[in-house]
Amino acid sequence: MSRLQQGLKTRQTHFALALKVALLGGVVAFSSAVFAEGLLKEGITPATDASQIPASAKLRTDTVVAGISEPQGIFNPYFFVNGWDENVTNVIFSRLIDWDSQGKLVPGLAESWTVSPDNKVYTIKLRPGLTFSDGSPLTAEDVAFTLTVLLDPKYDGDTDITLANIAGGTDYKAGKADSVSGLKVIDPLTLQVTTTQPGATTLAKIGGPVLSKAWYGKGYQRGNLDYLRSLHGKPLGNGPYVYDKYIPGQEIRFHANSHFYRGTPPTPRFIYRVTNPSTNFQLFQTGETDYDAFTSRPDDIEQLKMLGFANINLYGSSDYSQVEFNVHRPALQDKRVRQALIYRPG
């Protein structure tokens, strides 16, 4: 998980709120063990002296700058390979079905949905008047196209849509069908998704970000995603902000999406500034960034508090690590080899 994800996991609802904050804000994430040992307490520590806000930040009235580790430049919600690119795509794209703060599924681009009595057929209704950031209409055809891409045999991203068990999905993936039988566009605002069996996570799986068929699907044929991949650096979405430019090693620039279905964001411009653990505190202190994540020692919290202008959200990190082995390699089929690679003396 990325450093920024630890402290600033940018869901669109969370992000929109962050953009309305007038004072600077910092986020500090720690191992949960720190809290269990009683060294720190989770919660928000508000700024104590807004007059200490750096002059450079006060003058920046139409732009919010957030720190981020350097992304790879794969700005597609279904193809990114690290959390920093995901942070960027969360600004550009909206989900079909979202989550609220309690983890409950709630309407996003979809206005509503119904599920058949046998829990196998999902009928999704889009909000009327949806568009992508270029003003082109967003319809059920775009949703069907997105799900079809995820079932393409050449798709190699991290979203495993096969877990949704869409009817005809395995046949399409295997080249036995020219289309996915379980995807049916009823009208421009209605998509019917038929599955082969009920699934507790089906709605979440099919309710992800929506790709523009007109933009990403030009000349699309099953088994050929080359054109779509060529657009990783030219994303077209439907989220709160529109991608402008990526300057590697420096920043990613955005402007407010006037076509955003929840209304144009109040802050005209947004910038992700590339920072790292050796620079992020200084940039925050001088007002060059408005928002950043800090994974640090408890002692460093005092530095943030002494600034006076920092709103600090302190909470335990839920990070985890794992090691995966490719057991198709003969050497790794031996349990003793796997143990030797991951075990170490206490």
UniProtKB/TrEMBL annotation:
What organism, scientifically named, is this protein from?
A: Klebsiella pneumoniae subsp. pneumoniae
Q: Where is the Solute-binding protein family domain?
A: 104-343
Biological-process GO terms, alphabetical: peptide transport
Task: State what protein this is by name.
Answer: Oligopeptide ABC transporter
In terms of CDD domains, this protein maps to:
PBP2_NikA_DppA_OppA_like
- PANTHER family in alphabetical order: OLIGOPEPTIDE-BINDING PROTEIN OPPA, PERIPLASMIC BINDING COMPONENT OF ABC TRANSPORTER
Any one GO molecular-function label of the UniProt entry:
peptide transmembrane transporter activity
SUPFAM superfamilies noted in UniProt: Periplasmic binding protein-like II (SSF53850)
The record's Gene3D superfamilies line, in alphabetical order, gives: Dipeptide-binding Protein, Domain 1, Dipeptide-binding Protein, Domain 3, Periplasmic binding protein-like II
Gene responsible for this protein: dppA_4
Which residues, if any, are the signal sequence?
none
